[in-house]
Specification:
The protein is an alpha/beta fold. The protein contains 11 helices and 9 strands. A 7-stranded mixed sheet has the order 4-3-2-5-6-9-7. The protein has a two-stranded antiparallel ribbon with strand order 1-8. The model has no long low-confidence stretch (mean pLDDT 96). Bound molecules: S-adenosylmethionine. S-adenosylmethionine (SAM) binds next to strand 1, helix 3 and strand 3. Its main location: cytoplasm. Specifically dimethylates two adjacent adenosines (A1518 and A1519) in the loop of a conserved hairpin near the 3'-end of 16S rRNA in the 30S particle. May play a critical role in biogenesis of 30S subunits. It catalyses: adenosine(1518)/adenosine(1519) in 16S rRNA + 4 S-adenosyl-L-methionine = N(6)-dimethyladenosine(1518)/N(6)-dimethyladenosine(1519) in 16S rRNA + 4 S-adenosyl-L-homocysteine + 4 H(+).
């Protein structure tokens, strides 16, 4: 018995199913069900909610989510050994746990959750795929997205890059994309000693809530502009934005940004203005070429 349910302690599950941790799959398991309950509670009340979980592993977080009353958990797991271990959890919570064996990067998550229903994403993410998964969720189209919130464990350094404010060292492309579409904060840190095996660095749980109406902007244009700006983050924008192939000084002036500023000083609204201005200039250029050739 483990405290939150009548299933065996996770140490026994790991031993009985031979779940020696695989580095290649970013396996660092959480065995403390009080801690996994704390992560699940960070998402808010779960009754009536379908939770998408990536990488349930031996099921510590999955069990906490189910014990807290989530209507259903849809869990994507790449390691077949873990899938076998999770069938016991599925039996304990009939019809409430759906396990999908596969690579979360290859699966369209929208097909797994009820459309129009309440959905939250909760995961102790494998570190090697955490950032691409987050970028995928932040890039959802249409917006507002299919989920109400994302509650995700990252390495502390990645968590800081997600929530960073302008003017700070961690502020970059990820903070601009996350800040444009979501409000986010670091809920709490988790020390290496909480995991088996312990990773080298501290981890953090980040909670992201989609903004209902982000500033209108094309995501592709925003990515293009931040790529140019942060690709040369120490340079002034009048220099770093040259690769955009438009009149950089005019673009900056229209966006109300001094040409001597550097990328890390520009708030999200500034990047949105740059992205919109860049796109308008590109469209105008394409139009004038097609008019000239007709
Ligand atoms: N949720 C468990 C916990 O908290 O103890 C395990 C977390 S462990 C950090 C990451 C899990 O993600 C592992 O079980 C691993 O097998 C799984 N995983 C790794 N890459 C994956 C992928 N591309 N798609 C789905 N699951 C993956």
């Amino acid at each position: 018995m483990s405290g939150i349910d009548d299933l065996p302690p996770l140490r026994e599950v790991i031993r009985d199913h031979g779940l020696s941790a695989l580095k290649s799959l970013g396996q660092n398991f959480l065995l403390d069900l009080n801690l996994t309950s704390r992560i699940a509670r960070t998402a808010g009340r779960l009754d009536g909610v379908t939770v998408l979980e990536v990488g349930p592993g031996p099921g510590g977080l999955t069990r906490a989510i189910l014990a807290l009353g989530a209507e259903k958990v849809v869990a994507i797991e790449r390691d077949p050994r873990c899938v076998a271990a999770l069938t016991e959890v599925a039996e304990r919570y009939p019809d409430r746990l759906q396990i999908i064996e596969g690579d979360a990067l290859e699966i369209d998550h929208t097909t797994l959750v009820p459309s129009g229903g309440r959905v939250c994403v909760i995961a102790n993410l494998p570190y090697n795929v955490g950032t691409p998964l987050l970028i995928g969720w932040l890039s959802a189209d249409p917006w507002p997205p299919w989920y109400e919130s994302l509650t995700l464990m990252f390495q502390r350094e990645v968590a800081e890059r997600i929530v960073a404010a302008p003017g700070t060292d961690h502020y970059g492309r990820l903070a601009v994309l996350a800040g444009w579409r979501c409000q986010s904060h670091i809920a709490f840190d988790v020390p290496p000693s909480a995991f088996v095996p312990p990773p080298k660095v501290t981890s953090s749980v980040v909670h992201l809530v989609p903004r209902p109406a982000p500033l209108p902007c094309s995501r592709e244009a925003l990515e293009r502009v931040t790529e140019a700006a942060f690709g040369q983050r120490r340079k002034m924008l009048r220099q770093s934005l040259k690769s955009l192939g438009v009149d950089t000084m005019a673009l900056l002036e229209e966006a109300g940004i001094a040409p001597t500023e550097r990328a890390e000083q520009v708030p999200v609204e500034g990047f949105v203005a740059l992205a919109n201005g860049w796109l308008a200039r590109r469209k105008a250029a394409v139009q004038s070429v097609s008019t000239a050739s007709s």
